[in-house]
Amino acid sequence: MRVIALALLVACTHAHGRGVDYAQADAMLDFLETPRAAQLEAVMAAPGTALIVAQQNVSRRITAAQYRTVLAAIGADRAPALAPADDSERAKRGVAGLRDDVWPALHWAAANRALLAARLADVRTLDAGAAATRLALAWLPDPTPPAVRLHVVMGGRAGAAAIDHDIYFDVLAMSFKASAGAGTYPSPPEIVEFFAHETHHVGLGAIVDRQRAQLRFDDVERRAYDLLVMLVSEGSATYFINAHHDLARMRDDPQYREHLADPERLLATIEHLLGELLAHRLDGDAYEQALTPLVASGFHSAGALLFDAIYRGSGRAAVLDVLRDPRQLLSAYVAAGGPHAFDRGLVARSVVLGVSGTGIADP
Fold first, then answer.
1. Could you give the CA distance from residue 342 to residue 268 in angstroms, rounded to a whole number?
2. Interhelix angle for 37-45 vs 47-56, to 10°?
3. Looking at the DSSP assignment, which residues form a beta bridge with residue 281?
4. Residue 57 — left, alpha, or beta (φ > 0 → left; ψ -120 to 50 → alpha)?
5. Are residues 174 and 279 in the same domain?
6. Of 207, 218, 224, 316, most Cβ neighbours within 10 A?
7. How many angstroms separate the CA atoms of 10 and 153, rounded?
8. Are residues 114 and 183 in the same domain?
9. Percent helix, strand, coil in the chain (nearest 5)?
């Protein structure tokens, strides 16, 4: 996942695209061994913790103070009581994520420090940067290597994320999910693929930013464009890098299984959401509530379904065209013979987002 203009981590000394920052993960291991105030403050001061908080604020809303409260309760019998940061749907999702995902993982980590230490040591043996860049560039239309900074952290919701040009892999989050039966802990090549997935986001983000600067959106069209970008970004990285362009592989993964069990319903949900956006019927918290079923892996799964049809029906060149211009996603899917019958007017309107600066009027 990608957040624009996060002004942090300027003090990192490792070179772009080379080396990995382990400071936050090391601080977390120290805290797990000695959960005292000084060790907690070291975790909170680590740049990787700011990344963990920022990732949750992509589709939720939490504060560093809330994360500190959860971290301080690592040895408690239950998650601490938290009030949402505000009255928004994002803030409510933020509290739910801290309570239901982050605190259980941290609580589990306290009893599994040795396992986490061993897995962190294994990650240190990888030359993740160079290999991840090669994988990312294989599915990007621009051959310029993205300038990224790599981090290994512990204690977030996502197994991996991109925050501006900073990318992290979360050993604890991935280990806890595996322990809970929500997947398997990744092998060394799969860890490289997680870094590649996020590197792909950074590279694609630069392409999208250049296109965005040339288009003129009203507020309605901007949200619609961002929705298509999310589908293209998560769908392409997941399908081509992590799943090796094999939907069967995704269907075997608990993370995507539920969404992919009914492809027609999932794509109909995406179509409805985009149509409601452009018809001016979704805004503010109504939009956030409509997104809620998709914020975990729904965008990854729906995007993968769309790219599977495009790749199999029209080939790699058509995929690269969509990566150059996410507005082409639905039209490329239709041209490739994808099975879901998208509304023709919606497909036509999505192609010209940002040209007229107006959305679809209410019917």
1. 8
2. 70
3. none
4. alpha
5. no
6. 224
7. 17
8. yes
9. 60, 5, 35
**222, amino acid identity:** R
Q: What mean pLDDT is reported for the chain? A: 90
Provide the pLDDT for residue 295: 72
How confident is the model over 8-12, as a mean pLDDT?
Answer: 32
- Write the single-letter amino acid at 250: M
The three-class DSSP label of residue 76 is coil
Is residue 8 predicted with pLDDT exceeding 80?
A: no
Query: Hey, which residues does 152 pair with through a beta bridge?
Result: 169
Based on the domain organization, do 226 and 314 belong to the same domain? yes
**191 and 225 part of one domain:** no
Is residue 280 very low, low, confident or very high in pLDDT (cuts 50, 70, 90)? Answer: confident
Are both 226 and 197 inside the same structural domain? Answer: no
pLDDT band at 356 (very low <50, low <70, confident <90, very high): low
Q: Which of 268, 125, 142 is nearest to 199 (CA)?
A: 142
Joined tokens for residue 203:
């590279």
| Domain match, 136 and 33 both | yes
74 and 113 housed in the same domain: yes
Question: Are 51 and 93 part of one and the same domain?
Answer: yes
- Domain of 159 in residue numbering reads as 20-204
Closest-CA residue to 209 (of 324, 318, 132):
324
Q: pTM of the predicted model, to two decimals?
A: 0.84
Cβ contacts of residue 162 below 8 Å, gap of 6+? 1, 2, 148, 198, 199, 201, 202, 205
pLDDT computed for residue 3 by the predictor: 35
CA distances from 14 to 8, 34, 171, 362 (A): 14, 28, 20, 53
pLDDT at 232 over 60: yes
**DSSP H stretches of helix in 298-338:** 298-314, 316-324, 329-335
Indicate if the pLDDT at residue 363 is higher than 60.
no
